[in-house]
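Batch 3, record 17
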Amino acid sequence: MFDRVNTLLLGIVLCAFLFVVSGCPKPTPTPQGDAASQDTAGGKGQQQSKTGESTTRGGSLEDAGKGKLPVSDGPLKEVYFAYDSFDLRPDARATLKTNADWLKANSSARVEIEGHCDERGTNEYNLALGAKRAQAAKDYLISLGIPAARLSTISYGEELQVCKEQTEDCWQKNRRDRFVVTAGRPAS
Amino acid sequence: MLRKLLIVIFAALGTVLFDARPFYSQINKGTIEGPRRIIAIAISPLKNLGSGDDKRGLSESVADAIGNDMKMSGWFRVLDRSAYIERPQESGITLDSFDLKNWSTIGAESLVKGGYSVQGEDLTVELRLFDVYQAKQLVGKKYTGKARDFRRMAHKFADEIINQFTGTPGPFNTRIAYVSKSGGALKEVYISHLDGSEKSQITNNRSINLSPAWSPDGRMLLYTSYKDGQRSLYLYDLAAGRETRIAERSGSSIGGKWSPDGQTIAVAFERAGNTDLYLVDRSGKTLRRLTEDKGIDVSPTWSPDGNRLAFVSNRSGSPQIYIMDVAGANVRRLTYSGSYNTSPDWSPKGDKIAYTGRVAGRFQIFTIGVQGGDPQQLTSGSGDNEDPSWAPDGRFLAFASNRGGGRYRLYMMRDTGENQNTLTASGSDDTNPSWSPRLE
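Prediction for the assembled complex:
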């Protein structure tokens, strides 16, 4: 009787041990949802982008992944552009000066400048136009004394809209640069 | 004597000239641009030539798929099945084994009949096209494959029907790759048959995926994705279900199009705000830089002989279509009308380029001859029409439109602008179509 109980207890302990050992979480989280594709060696970019930044960079794409509108919510204000243009208007330059002041006061902060377009026009050209808009702001901030190493750029073209109405008011809101503070992350 | 002869000759001539019956495969056979007028076609449900039940509904499904292709071409009027007199199982499929009067009575000028047999998963389909008035078979084909391939067989025969009437096979044994919004702003790449059936999701990374483009052999797709943070170019092997990142150049890519010989990819890279065109190989290694100006240079498209590229540049101050040779030299501006011309696609026939142009604040599809000259506007109306993609026969274009308000859908039309028909209605925005080459 006693032996049987012991054996049973031993069995239970062994099972529990095996259960715990085999149930350990895997060290690298596999990317969710790539059911349609498997990454080969060529897809090594899964866990890190070429610039060495993590893929969770904050900003508008991350907002989209969470189902949020990509509106600015940080300490730096957006600048706006005229249709088809990447010129910095006086209002844009004034905002950039204010942003530069903040960056000088927060010298460890790094910023990703996102260039955006309104929804008119075609996707590829708008990606290139958004890049011009982001670079225009970056160049101006550099001219105001912000080191280039603190500034990175990315264009989202017309892909991430803050509003959907087909009105000039909404279109102007989308023709923007957004400044996402990525403090503490290594820039490229 | 002479008078009698003349009367006979005149009578004979009169019979030929004034005979009202359409001699379709001889007289009504049109040019590559289409038959001379809309052809009334009946497509009979298929006869089950095997022993099992029609569990899969193949009898009607094959006929439906052919009929849909005929309608989409705009060249045929498909007679309603409710008017058909024959029952497929009770009549033969060869010319001598059924009564053509059953079809001429209901107004059919041409007729498709056929049969199928299924053994397990294996399917054989036999299809025949008849000229009803001439009482002859124009073409017959037999296809074998898996039961799930029935649509492909239908598309192949639809292309053959079109070949009989225009001298060039139709565009239906193809696929369309496109981008569809998958929740908020996220976009994934899909492929489907032209009629929207057999939709298959290619990317599933919950990011923004753009600009799908087919390889010339129809086995791979290129697309651009933000899945790794910055935009990169990816290659997807359809048979293997495998994705590979191929951009090695620093800077982020925009689009990417395969050369006609499948060896080179033309792609735009953006660096420090400036976007220029490059040629890379399949591993992403840079072969040549094509443009070097401060303006935006983007959206390359290859000529069918692989010697030239059309692309978009704003070097003149506004986005316009240009042509250059594959070494990046001999740059020539093509578009001079309008202040926004983008998204070029070079026709497989080599003579025209389709593109998106802004007119009166709206975006429309245009074509322009490769030598230049006046563009032809193909779409009009209150919506936006964007991103044309040529069918491999060079007679049709797919494009995206939000006409009618609301979502973008994919459409197909003739390269004359006629016969604009919806391709997809997915309930989400469908954009950026890429028409595949002809498939096996």
